[in-house]
Amino acid sequence: MPGLVFTPKAGILLLLTGAGLLFYFDWEKKRIKEEKEKAKANATYGRPDVGGPFQMIDHDGKPFTEKNLLGSYSLVYFGFTNCPDICPDELDKMGEAVSAIEKALPESSPLRHVNPVFVSVDPARDSVEQVHRYVQDFHPRLIGLTGSYDTVKAMCRAYRVYFSSPPPQEGEASPGQDYLVDHSIYFYLMDPEGLFVQAYGKNNTAQEVTERVLQEITKWEKGERAEQRYTFRTQT
Amino acid sequence: MNWITSWFSSSKPSDSSGGIAPDRAKRKVCWDARDTYFACLDKNSVLKPGEEQNLCSKEEKRYEENCAKSWIEYFNKRRVLQEEQKDQLKMMENQANDARKRN
After folding, report:
1. What are phi and psi of A143, to 5 degrees?
2. How many CB atoms lie within 10 A of CB A134?
3. How far is CA B66 from the centre of its chain?
4. Where does the record locate the signal sequence feature (chain B) (predicted)?
5. CATH fold for the domain made of A55-235
6. What does DSSP assign to residue B76?
Protein backbone atom coordinates (compact mmCIF):
# COMPACT_ATOMS: atom_id res chain seq x y z
CA MET A 1 0.00 0.00 0.00
CA PRO A 2 2.17 2.80 -1.34
CA GLY A 3 -0.40 5.55 -0.56
CA LEU A 4 0.20 5.22 3.15
CA VAL A 5 3.95 5.77 3.02
CA PHE A 6 4.99 8.78 5.08
CA THR A 7 7.04 11.18 2.95
CA PRO A 8 8.71 14.44 4.10
CA LYS A 9 6.39 16.31 1.74
CA ALA A 10 3.31 14.86 3.42
CA GLY A 11 4.79 15.72 6.82
CA ILE A 12 5.25 19.39 5.92
CA LEU A 13 1.74 19.55 4.47
CA LEU A 14 0.31 18.09 7.67
CA LEU A 15 2.19 20.61 9.83
CA LEU A 16 1.09 23.53 7.66
CA THR A 17 -2.54 22.46 7.70
CA GLY A 18 -2.44 21.98 11.45
CA ALA A 19 -0.88 25.38 12.06
CA GLY A 20 -3.36 26.98 9.66
CA LEU A 21 -6.32 25.41 11.43
CA LEU A 22 -5.00 26.44 14.84
CA PHE A 23 -4.54 30.00 13.64
CA TYR A 24 -8.00 30.05 12.09
CA PHE A 25 -9.74 28.71 15.21
CA ASP A 26 -7.94 31.17 17.43
CA TRP A 27 -8.82 34.06 15.15
CA GLU A 28 -12.46 32.97 14.92
CA LYS A 29 -12.68 32.62 18.71
CA LYS A 30 -11.41 36.16 19.17
CA ARG A 31 -13.77 37.48 16.54
CA ILE A 32 -16.83 35.89 18.22
CA LYS A 33 -15.74 37.17 21.60
CA GLU A 34 -15.34 40.67 20.21
CA GLU A 35 -18.73 40.52 18.54
CA LYS A 36 -20.39 39.38 21.73
CA GLU A 37 -18.80 42.18 23.70
CA LYS A 38 -19.91 44.69 21.10
CA ALA A 39 -23.47 43.35 21.30
CA LYS A 40 -23.40 43.58 25.08
CA ALA A 41 -22.24 47.19 24.96
CA ASN A 42 -24.96 48.01 22.45
CA ALA A 43 -27.59 46.28 24.57
CA THR A 44 -27.17 48.77 27.37
CA TYR A 45 -28.09 51.48 24.88
CA GLY A 46 -31.13 49.51 23.78
CA ARG A 47 -32.52 49.30 27.32
CA PRO A 48 -34.75 52.24 28.31
CA ASP A 49 -32.87 54.50 30.68
CA VAL A 50 -35.24 54.18 33.65
CA GLY A 51 -34.09 54.03 37.26
CA GLY A 52 -30.76 54.71 38.90
CA PRO A 53 -29.46 56.10 42.18
CA PHE A 54 -31.87 57.81 44.62
CA GLN A 55 -31.80 58.93 48.23
CA MET A 56 -35.09 58.66 50.05
CA ILE A 57 -36.41 57.88 53.55
CA ASP A 58 -38.39 54.72 54.25
CA HIS A 59 -41.62 54.52 56.28
CA ASP A 60 -39.58 53.85 59.45
CA GLY A 61 -37.59 57.05 58.96
CA LYS A 62 -34.41 55.30 57.83
CA PRO A 63 -32.35 56.36 54.79
CA PHE A 64 -33.13 54.24 51.76
CA THR A 65 -31.27 54.13 48.44
CA GLU A 66 -31.34 52.01 45.27
CA LYS A 67 -28.77 49.74 46.95
CA ASN A 68 -31.38 48.55 49.46
CA LEU A 69 -33.29 46.95 46.58
CA LEU A 70 -30.40 45.06 44.95
CA GLY A 71 -30.45 41.26 44.98
CA SER A 72 -34.20 40.95 44.41
CA TYR A 73 -36.68 41.97 41.76
CA SER A 74 -38.65 45.09 42.73
CA LEU A 75 -42.04 46.48 41.71
CA VAL A 76 -42.00 50.28 42.08
CA TYR A 77 -45.15 52.43 42.10
CA PHE A 78 -45.31 56.23 42.37
CA GLY A 79 -48.38 57.76 44.05
CA PHE A 80 -49.61 59.71 47.08
CA THR A 81 -51.47 58.80 50.26
CA ASN A 82 -54.39 61.16 49.56
CA CYS A 83 -54.97 59.51 46.17
CA PRO A 84 -58.72 58.92 45.60
CA ASP A 85 -58.80 55.46 44.04
CA ILE A 86 -56.21 54.63 41.38
CA CYS A 87 -53.22 54.37 43.76
CA PRO A 88 -54.90 52.04 46.28
CA ASP A 89 -56.21 49.87 43.41
CA GLU A 90 -52.78 49.62 41.83
CA LEU A 91 -51.06 48.94 45.17
CA ASP A 92 -53.58 46.18 45.90
CA LYS A 93 -52.83 44.68 42.50
CA MET A 94 -49.10 44.91 43.11
CA GLY A 95 -49.44 43.23 46.52
CA GLU A 96 -51.56 40.48 45.02
CA ALA A 97 -48.91 39.83 42.36
CA VAL A 98 -46.07 39.83 44.93
CA SER A 99 -47.92 37.21 47.02
CA ALA A 100 -48.76 35.08 43.98
CA ILE A 101 -45.12 35.11 42.79
CA GLU A 102 -43.95 34.05 46.24
CA LYS A 103 -46.44 31.18 46.24
CA ALA A 104 -45.54 30.04 42.72
CA LEU A 105 -41.82 29.66 43.43
CA PRO A 106 -40.18 26.99 45.64
CA GLU A 107 -38.83 28.07 49.02
CA SER A 108 -35.31 27.38 47.76
CA SER A 109 -35.63 30.08 45.11
CA PRO A 110 -33.62 33.14 46.19
CA LEU A 111 -35.73 35.43 43.99
CA ARG A 112 -39.21 34.50 45.26
CA HIS A 113 -39.42 37.65 47.41
CA VAL A 114 -40.14 40.60 45.13
CA ASN A 115 -39.84 44.01 46.82
CA PRO A 116 -43.10 45.99 46.59
CA VAL A 117 -42.24 49.71 46.73
CA PHE A 118 -44.47 52.80 47.04
CA VAL A 119 -42.83 56.15 46.28
CA SER A 120 -44.63 59.34 47.30
CA VAL A 121 -44.91 62.14 44.73
CA ASP A 122 -46.48 64.39 47.40
CA PRO A 123 -43.64 65.04 49.86
CA ALA A 124 -45.37 68.15 51.27
CA ARG A 125 -48.12 66.07 52.88
CA ASP A 126 -46.60 62.57 52.91
CA SER A 127 -44.47 62.66 56.04
CA VAL A 128 -42.77 59.49 57.28
CA GLU A 129 -45.67 58.99 59.75
CA GLN A 130 -48.26 59.46 57.01
CA VAL A 131 -46.50 56.97 54.71
CA HIS A 132 -46.04 54.58 57.66
CA ARG A 133 -49.79 54.61 58.33
CA TYR A 134 -50.55 54.25 54.62
CA VAL A 135 -48.43 51.15 53.91
CA GLN A 136 -50.19 49.22 56.73
CA ASP A 137 -53.20 48.86 54.42
CA PHE A 138 -51.28 46.90 51.78
CA HIS A 139 -48.77 44.05 51.37
CA PRO A 140 -46.96 43.36 54.68
CA ARG A 141 -43.59 43.89 52.99
CA LEU A 142 -44.58 47.09 51.16
CA ILE A 143 -41.80 49.68 51.50
CA GLY A 144 -43.02 53.28 51.58
CA LEU A 145 -40.58 55.99 50.49
CA THR A 146 -40.72 59.75 50.84
CA GLY A 147 -38.24 62.60 51.04
CA SER A 148 -37.79 66.29 50.43
CA TYR A 149 -39.31 67.89 47.36
CA ASP A 150 -35.90 67.85 45.66
CA THR A 151 -35.06 64.18 46.37
CA VAL A 152 -38.54 63.10 45.23
CA LYS A 153 -38.22 65.22 42.11
CA ALA A 154 -34.78 63.69 41.37
CA MET A 155 -36.08 60.14 41.79
CA CYS A 156 -39.07 60.87 39.55
CA ARG A 157 -36.77 62.26 36.91
CA ALA A 158 -34.59 59.14 37.05
CA TYR A 159 -37.67 56.92 36.71
CA ARG A 160 -39.24 59.10 34.01
CA VAL A 161 -42.26 59.77 36.22
CA TYR A 162 -44.29 62.92 35.75
CA PHE A 163 -46.02 64.56 38.73
CA SER A 164 -47.77 67.89 39.24
CA SER A 165 -47.30 68.59 42.97
CA PRO A 166 -46.10 72.18 43.38
CA PRO A 167 -42.86 72.84 45.26
CA PRO A 168 -43.53 73.80 48.91
CA GLN A 169 -42.22 77.34 48.59
CA GLU A 170 -45.02 78.10 46.17
CA GLY A 171 -47.27 77.80 49.17
CA GLU A 172 -49.96 75.56 47.74
CA ALA A 173 -48.86 72.18 48.97
CA SER A 174 -48.81 71.87 52.73
CA PRO A 175 -50.12 69.42 55.33
CA GLY A 176 -53.86 69.79 55.87
CA GLN A 177 -54.46 71.17 52.39
CA ASP A 178 -56.93 69.40 50.17
CA TYR A 179 -55.54 68.86 46.66
CA LEU A 180 -54.78 66.05 44.22
CA VAL A 181 -51.50 65.21 42.52
CA ASP A 182 -51.57 64.32 38.86
CA HIS A 183 -48.95 61.65 38.15
CA SER A 184 -47.90 58.73 35.93
CA ILE A 185 -49.61 55.54 37.03
CA TYR A 186 -47.31 52.80 35.73
CA PHE A 187 -45.42 50.51 38.01
CA TYR A 188 -41.98 49.35 37.13
CA LEU A 189 -40.23 46.00 37.34
CA MET A 190 -36.57 46.40 38.23
CA ASP A 191 -34.15 43.46 38.13
CA PRO A 192 -31.81 42.35 40.99
CA GLU A 193 -29.12 44.68 39.61
CA GLY A 194 -31.47 47.65 39.70
CA LEU A 195 -32.01 47.78 35.94
CA PHE A 196 -35.41 48.49 34.38
CA VAL A 197 -37.16 45.44 32.87
CA GLN A 198 -40.72 46.48 32.03
CA ALA A 199 -43.68 48.61 33.13
CA TYR A 200 -47.29 47.64 33.87
CA GLY A 201 -50.35 49.84 33.57
CA LYS A 202 -53.94 49.96 34.73
CA ASN A 203 -54.96 47.49 32.03
CA ASN A 204 -52.66 44.71 33.25
CA THR A 205 -54.34 42.39 35.76
CA ALA A 206 -52.58 41.03 38.84
CA GLN A 207 -52.42 37.67 37.07
CA GLU A 208 -50.73 39.15 34.00
CA VAL A 209 -48.19 40.95 36.16
CA THR A 210 -47.54 37.71 38.09
CA GLU A 211 -46.98 35.71 34.91
CA ARG A 212 -44.67 38.24 33.33
CA VAL A 213 -42.56 38.68 36.46
CA LEU A 214 -42.33 34.88 36.86
CA GLN A 215 -41.09 34.63 33.27
CA GLU A 216 -38.38 37.17 34.03
CA ILE A 217 -37.34 35.36 37.22
CA THR A 218 -37.13 32.03 35.39
CA LYS A 219 -34.96 33.60 32.70
CA TRP A 220 -32.71 35.16 35.32
CA GLU A 221 -32.34 31.88 37.20
CA LYS A 222 -31.36 30.10 33.99
CA GLY A 223 -28.75 32.80 33.35
CA GLU A 224 -30.42 33.75 30.10
CA ARG A 225 -30.27 37.42 30.77
CA ALA A 226 -27.10 38.25 28.83
CA GLU A 227 -28.36 36.25 25.87
CA GLN A 228 -31.65 38.11 26.02
CA ARG A 229 -29.86 41.44 25.80
CA TYR A 230 -27.87 40.17 22.81
CA THR A 231 -30.91 39.07 20.80
CA PHE A 232 -32.82 42.18 21.85
CA ARG A 233 -30.21 44.35 20.16
CA THR A 234 -29.71 42.26 17.04
CA GLN A 235 -33.45 42.27 16.33
CA THR A 236 -33.59 46.05 16.14
CA MET B 1 -60.83 88.03 50.67
CA ASN B 2 -59.95 86.36 53.94
CA TRP B 3 -63.51 85.41 54.71
CA ILE B 4 -63.71 83.46 51.45
CA THR B 5 -60.63 81.34 52.10
CA SER B 6 -61.60 80.70 55.69
CA TRP B 7 -65.10 79.76 54.65
CA PHE B 8 -63.74 77.35 52.06
CA SER B 9 -61.21 75.74 54.33
CA SER B 10 -63.73 75.23 57.13
CA SER B 11 -66.01 73.42 54.68
CA LYS B 12 -63.33 70.91 53.73
CA PRO B 13 -64.11 67.53 55.23
CA SER B 14 -60.44 66.52 55.16
CA ASP B 15 -59.60 69.28 57.61
CA SER B 16 -61.53 67.58 60.37
CA SER B 17 -59.02 64.71 60.18
CA GLY B 18 -56.07 67.09 60.68
CA GLY B 19 -54.54 66.34 57.28
CA ILE B 20 -54.37 62.58 57.82
CA ALA B 21 -55.08 60.67 54.61
CA PRO B 22 -58.09 58.31 54.72
CA ASP B 23 -57.26 54.68 55.44
CA ARG B 24 -58.77 51.67 53.68
CA ALA B 25 -61.95 51.74 55.78
CA LYS B 26 -62.52 55.48 55.26
CA ARG B 27 -61.84 55.15 51.54
CA LYS B 28 -64.49 52.47 51.31
CA VAL B 29 -67.05 54.60 53.18
CA CYS B 30 -66.37 57.44 50.72
CA TRP B 31 -66.58 55.20 47.62
CA ASP B 32 -69.86 53.70 48.87
CA ALA B 33 -71.32 57.16 49.49
CA ARG B 34 -70.21 58.20 46.00
CA ASP B 35 -71.75 55.11 44.38
CA THR B 36 -75.06 55.65 46.23
CA TYR B 37 -75.16 59.30 45.13
CA PHE B 38 -74.31 58.43 41.50
CA ALA B 39 -76.96 55.67 41.54
CA CYS B 40 -79.51 58.27 42.61
CA LEU B 41 -78.42 60.55 39.74
CA ASP B 42 -78.76 57.62 37.30
CA LYS B 43 -82.24 56.86 38.65
CA ASN B 44 -83.26 60.43 37.93
CA SER B 45 -81.49 60.47 34.54
CA VAL B 46 -79.12 63.21 35.63
CA LEU B 47 -75.57 63.03 34.28
CA LYS B 48 -73.88 66.08 35.76
CA PRO B 49 -73.71 66.14 39.57
CA GLY B 50 -75.36 69.32 40.87
CA GLU B 51 -78.05 69.38 38.18
CA GLU B 52 -80.42 67.10 40.07
CA GLN B 53 -82.03 69.93 42.08
CA ASN B 54 -83.12 68.41 45.40
CA LEU B 55 -83.75 64.87 44.17
CA CYS B 56 -80.65 63.36 45.83
CA SER B 57 -79.98 65.74 48.71
CA LYS B 58 -79.77 62.97 51.31
CA GLU B 59 -77.24 61.01 49.22
CA GLU B 60 -75.31 64.16 48.34
CA LYS B 61 -75.00 65.11 52.00
CA ARG B 62 -73.55 61.70 52.88
CA TYR B 63 -71.14 61.95 49.90
CA GLU B 64 -69.91 65.36 51.05
CA GLU B 65 -69.55 64.23 54.65
CA ASN B 66 -67.42 61.22 53.78
CA CYS B 67 -65.20 62.36 50.90
CA ALA B 68 -62.61 65.15 50.69
CA LYS B 69 -63.60 68.06 48.48
CA SER B 70 -60.78 67.34 46.01
CA TRP B 71 -61.99 63.74 45.69
CA ILE B 72 -65.58 64.85 45.05
CA GLU B 73 -64.43 67.23 42.31
CA TYR B 74 -62.37 64.44 40.75
CA PHE B 75 -65.11 61.79 40.92
CA ASN B 76 -67.73 64.21 39.54
CA LYS B 77 -65.52 65.28 36.64
CA ARG B 78 -64.67 61.67 35.84
CA ARG B 79 -68.34 60.67 35.81
CA VAL B 80 -69.11 63.26 33.13
CA LEU B 81 -65.94 62.48 31.15
CA GLN B 82 -66.61 58.75 31.11
CA GLU B 83 -70.15 59.33 29.86
CA GLU B 84 -68.88 61.63 27.11
CA GLN B 85 -66.33 59.02 26.07
CA LYS B 86 -69.09 56.42 25.91
CA ASP B 87 -71.14 58.73 23.69
CA GLN B 88 -68.17 59.38 21.43
CA LEU B 89 -67.48 55.68 21.09
CA LYS B 90 -71.13 55.04 20.22
CA MET B 91 -71.06 57.84 17.66
CA MET B 92 -67.92 56.42 16.10
CA GLU B 93 -69.48 52.98 15.97
CA ASN B 94 -72.62 54.34 14.34
CA GLN B 95 -70.57 56.24 11.77
CA ALA B 96 -68.58 53.11 11.01
CA ASN B 97 -71.80 51.13 10.60
CA ASP B 98 -73.31 53.77 8.32
CA ALA B 99 -70.18 53.78 6.19
CA ARG B 100 -70.35 50.01 5.91
CA LYS B 101 -74.00 50.11 4.88
CA ARG B 102 -73.30 52.69 2.19
CA ASN B 103 -70.55 50.58 0.66
Report:
1. -100, 125
2. 29
3. 13
4. none
5. Glutaredoxin (3.40.30)
6. H
Inter-chain CB proximity B20 and A84 less than 8 Å: no
Is residue A146 within 8 A of residue A127, CB to CB? The reply is: yes
pLDDT in tens, A197-225: 999 999 999 999 999 999 999 999 888 76
Q: Is A73 helix (H, G, I), strand (E, B) or coil?
A: coil
Q: Are A64 and A145 in contact (CB under 8 A)?
A: yes
Residue B23, chain A, CB below 8 Å: the answer is yes
pLDDT tens for A20-33 read: 888 888 888 888 88
Exposed/middle/buried for residue A9 (C-beta within 10 Å: 0-12, 13-18, 19+): exposed
The complex's ipTM works out to: 0.72
Closest CA to A55 of A135, A131, A147: A147
Cβ contacts below 8 Å, chain A against chain B, sum to 42
Rounded distance between C-alpha atoms, residue A31 and residue A109, angstroms? 37
